[in-house]
Amino acid sequence: MKLFDVYPLFDIEITKGVGCRTYDSQGIEYLDLYGGHAVISIGHSHPYYVQKLTEQIEKLVFYSNSVVNKLQLELADKLGKISGYDDYSLFLINSGAEANENALKLASFHTGKKKVIAFNKSFHGRTSAAVRVTNNPKIVAPINEGFDVEFLPLNNIEAVEKSLSKEDVCAVIIEGIQGVGGIQIPQPEFLQALSKSCKQHGVVLILDEVQSGYGRSGKFFAHQHAGIRPDLITVAKGMGNGFPIGGVLISPAFEPSYGMLGTTFGGNHLGCTAAIAVLDVIKAEHLVDNAAKVGDFLMEELRTIPEIKEVRGLGLMIGIEFDKPVKDLRSKLLFDEKVFTGVSGTNTIRLLPPLCLSMSDAKIFLEKFKKVISLV
Ligand SMILES: Cc1ncc(COP(=O)(O)O)c(C=O)c1O
Predict the structure, then answer these.
(1) What SS3 class is residue 229?
(2) Among 119, 124, 134, 154, which residue has the most ligand 1 atoms within 8 Å of its CB, making it the best to mutate?
(3) pTM of the full predicted structure?
(4) 101: CA distance to ligand 1 center in Å?
(5) Domain covering 47-284: architecture
(6) Which residue's alpha carbon is at the smallest distance from atom 4 of ligand 1?
(7) Which is it for strands 29-32 and 21-24: parallel, antiparallel or unpaired?
(8) Using a 6 Å cutoff on CB, does residue 123 contact ligand 1?
(9) What does each of the 376 residues of the chain score in pLDDT, given as a tens digit?
């Protein structure tokens, strides 16, 4: 059987990772400024993470959600404390799309309504409701067009208020920082006004922190830069450092009932073990502070490079926009300088490194980046 060919691939096979470095099947070393698309939070193959997963795999890989799983309780406790959401509840699933799918479902159950407001350039995943609120018609199949969505410009509170005044909206969904959309940051004043309007109209505010959460922005959640408290927060990616796990943090205003939500694999023993190890390492190694410090340094240095049009970001979620396509630049970085980076659209390089990126690795990246810029 062949693979269903939906991914354009670089001809590189990554077979090993350590910290912020990956190695291909030829043993060639790469500096990882991409983290496998914001997934590697504490660094590749962190020894504590490997040890915890190894111990758990020897004990038990899986049992169903019909029995007590104390790992889920430990995870919820640690996540509540580190994020400042100790009074919220946690529902566990396996991916970012699933997290948003369940958040939208909860919002609809809660309000009895089904219209959603999302934003231009949004990306929330590829499952049915998550892709419906994603602002890219190319990836929305006819079967996904099941409810009304209004896409509004980011940072335009008047547009949101006009729409909310019709009183037919169940949820507003917004990324903490738009990732796929090119590192677009909602203004703090906009988020504060949005949170207030949602409360006034009884609309559920969903903060998609799948990419921007887990310390990446220099705070545990990107929306915490604005000081708001959304009703639902979705997480995945960095949560498991490569082990698939996602979650919805749910405000106390939501009343659970048996059977309301459910999943076979969500909250499994290995996923919880991975997620607990991630939180332990984030705390012990002060990775949120590190993301803020190294991110600030990187952005300050990048802003001195004349060829760059704009640098946007918070912490270690950085977009570097040029006024021309970055395809060659990214290829040269990868194949000549052995540095992984991401892109958004045609003109923006996206940096999403592990949160343990050191100042010296940031300097190595800057040197290689400047060298490549001078050649393209
Ligand atoms: C902001 C955001 N939400 C949701 C998703 C979907 O996550 P997953 O691919 O784990 O379903 C992504 C993935 O890139 C994302 O960036």
Answers:
(1) coil
(2) 124
(3) 0.98
(4) 11
(5) 3-Layer(aba) Sandwich (3.40)
(6) 124
(7) antiparallel
(8) yes
(9) 999 999 999 999 999 999 999 999 999 999 999 999 999 999 999 999 999 999 999 999 999 999 999 999 999 999 999 999 999 999 999 999 999 999 999 999 999 999 999 999 999 999 999 999 999 999 999 999 999 999 999 999 999 999 999 999 999 999 999 999 999 999 999 999 999 999 999 999 999 999 999 999 999 999 999 999 999 999 999 999 999 999 999 999 999 999 999 999 999 999 999 999 999 999 999 999 999 999 999 999 999 999 999 999 999 999 999 999 999 999 999 999 999 999 999 999 999 999 999 999 999 999 999 999 999 8
- Domains of the chain: which residue ranges? 14-46+289-375, 47-284
Q: State the DSSP string of 159-200.
A: HHHHHHTTS-EEEEEEESSBTTTTSBPPPHHHHHHHHHHHHH
**Contact call for residues 22 and 32 (beta carbons, < 8 A):** yes
Q: Are 252 and 87 in contact (CB under 8 A)?
A: yes
One of 3.30.460.10, 3.90.1150.10, 3.40.50.1860, 3.40.190.170 is the CATH number of 14-46+289-375, namely: 3.90.1150.10
